[in-house]
Amino acid sequence: MASTSITDNPALADVQATPSAADLQARDDRIRRRESLLRIAVPTVVIAGLLLLWEVLVRVNNVPHYIIPAPSLILTTLVDNWDTLSGALWFTVKLTLLALVAAIVGGVLLAIAFALFKWVEIGLFPIAVILQVTPIIAIAPLILIYVSSTTAALLLCAWIVAFFPILSNTVIGLKSADSNLRDLFQLYKASPWQLFRYLLVPSALPYFMAGLKIAGGLSLIGAVVAEFTAGTAGRETGLASRILESSFRTEIPMMFAALLLVSLLGIVIFLVFAALSRAVLGHWHESEMKRER
């Protein structure tokens, strides 16, 4: 009797060639690890190369530190003045987070009112637009005059900047619910709370998370700009005050060190909210679901 090989039987060959579920999962894990590594390695290499080029150009051309300090000098200044800069950093962090929390609470509540009551949107939305389009640096002096507490005035300025993205994105999300699903909810006689909980909130959540990532950076910008306008000095002040003091004293390395902390704080805020968005939306929404490329 003649033996039958796998190559002689196409059906058996197809079975052997089909990868198992474990093989597919292992391949997907390798792809994810490679993409994660590239997302970290490529920006790190680019930034390290730019910093190295900056260091070399400053040293080769003997550029004075009061014009452009080398990155090594900036890091040394940051370490040597950490006691002063850490207090300013904590003040800026508190101001930014308080303004962001206030913007989230006020923006979400007002967005819900806009979505549920048309007359509220008609009456108040133009005021929100006016606050958004008016440069904060133009109205910050008035706020500092009318508000007795400097900290409260700075908080109000940062809140104004961060408020509108939360409000606008949440309103759009609440209004973007599928009309067919609305009809389905009405057909099954769903209560207003059920409509809000099971349809409007999931529809608005991706828009809210996008607005949150924008508002996080804007709250930091608002806090820094407001403190620049206030020109405050002393221990209970933020990084903007350290930058102003350094410019007055021509301490350029100190100015760059404070500016570095502001930039790092903004990056951390963005990364935290980006990770939060992936955690909230990654398992069900198209904007955060990972796909093989």
Describe the structure.
The protein is mostly helical and 293 residues long. The protein has 11 helices and no strands. The relative contact order is 0.11. The model has no long low-confidence stretch (mean pLDDT 86).
Task: For this entry, give a set of tags.
293 residues, mainly alpha, 11 helices, single chain
Care to give the gist of this entry?
The chain has 293 residues and is mostly helical. Helix content is 80%, strand content 0%.
Low-confidence stretches: none
**Biggest beta sheet summary:** none
Task: Tell me the series of helices and strands, N- to C-terminal.
Answer: HHHHHHHHHHH
Radius of gyration computed on alpha carbons: 27 Å
General form: flat
How many helices? Answer: 11
Overall structural class, as computed from helix and strand content, comes to mainly alpha
What number is the mean pLDDT? Answer: 86
Helix content: over 70%
Number of strands: 0
List the helices and strands and how they pair.
Elements: H1 10-17, H2 21-60, H3 71-80, H4 82-116, H5 118-133, H6 136-146, H7 150-175, H8 179-187, H9 192-230, H10 239-248, H11 252-281
Helix pairs in contact: 3-11, 4-5, 4-7, 4-9, 4-10, 5-7, 6-7, 6-9, 7-9, 9-10, 9-11, 10-11
